[in-house]
Amino acid sequence: MAKLSDGNVTVLYVVDIDRILSDVRDTIANEVGEALDRSICEAMSCAMAITESPGPKPMKKIKTFDH
User: Fold this and answer.
1) Are 11 and 4 in contact (CB under 8 A)?
2) ∠ CA 4-7-10 to the nearest 5 degrees?
């Protein structure tokens, strides 16, 4: 419980710190979870692009003539 007063009016209010902390934890967990999901999706997209790309062609052997 907390007391707020401006000299003329006093207001008593109850703060449910456990609920506030729970809401903060839930919000942080959701934000971190979404960011992690985005990062994983981006990494998977990059990995798929790398594995699906044809890559550089092997160089052809050039015949040389030794004198």
Assistant:
1) yes
2) 35
- Total count of residues recorded for the chain: 67
Q: What is the 3-state secondary structure (H, E, C) of the chain?
A: CEEEECCCCEEEECCCHHHHHHHHHHHHHHHHHHHHHHHHHHHHHHHHHHHHCCCCCCCCCCCCCCC
Amino acid (1-letter code) at residue 1: M
How many angstroms separate the CA atoms of 2 and 11, rounded?
8
CA–chain centroid gap for 19, Å, is: 25
Q: How far apart are CA 15 and CA 5, in angstroms?
A: 16
pLDDT tens for each residue of 25-63: 999 999 999 999 889 888 888 888 777 666 666 666 666
At 46 the pLDDT is: 82
